[in-house]
């Protein structure tokens, strides 16, 4: 099967959502050439067993099983490295990123954008009904990114985990030490933006959905701040590394 679109997601204990997620992605991509790469982070609730069965039955599904819990960033790195599509689309599998928005992101890549970010802060976008604390935490993280990392200013939503990019862009995850302290919650979009400072970045509005089933994996409070500041420090170094290489 020739794969033109690779959808990449990482899972950790998403048995309540995983079937709906895969069915939703396959529904909006019907008639296209695509693969769904799911990297499971050693789930203990039946997610990895469901994925194993689904992969045996469904030629579109590719599963990578982590022997230990590597964290979101490293799991997404593995999935992106495995991707064979001309377009790679990264999203969550908990249904907070609606599969119905996928065609909009893909169409903007086809129209000439290099990176398309699903944004909560442009026309057609919304952050949904998150509580005030989470809203303040997210907006504060975005402010810090825009203040400290110039490449993050190419999008209105640098904290987005819902984006697509052309696979021939730079996405060199071979360096071993980078993000060692932030592998549990880092936003991989920041890395790709830092590595491709002259790319054409486009925002597409989408409505962030409330989690209906399962438990949120979001880290908050001082633990989040510590990891996020470590992440931004590494992104700043990475951006300097690639500044004169493009």
TrEMBL record:
GO terms for molecular function: dolichyl-phosphate beta-D-mannosyltransferase activity. InterPro entries: DPM1-like, Glyco_trans_2-like, Nucleotide-diphossugar_trans. Residues 6-133 form the Glycosyltransferase 2-like domain. Gene3D superfamilies: Spore Coat Polysaccharide Biosynthesis Protein SpsA, Chain A (3.90.550.10). It comes from the Archaea. Belongs to the glycosyltransferase 2 family. PANTHER family: DOLICHOL-PHOSPHATE MANNOSYLTRANSFERASE SUBUNIT 1. This is Dolichol-phosphate-mannosyltransferase related protein.
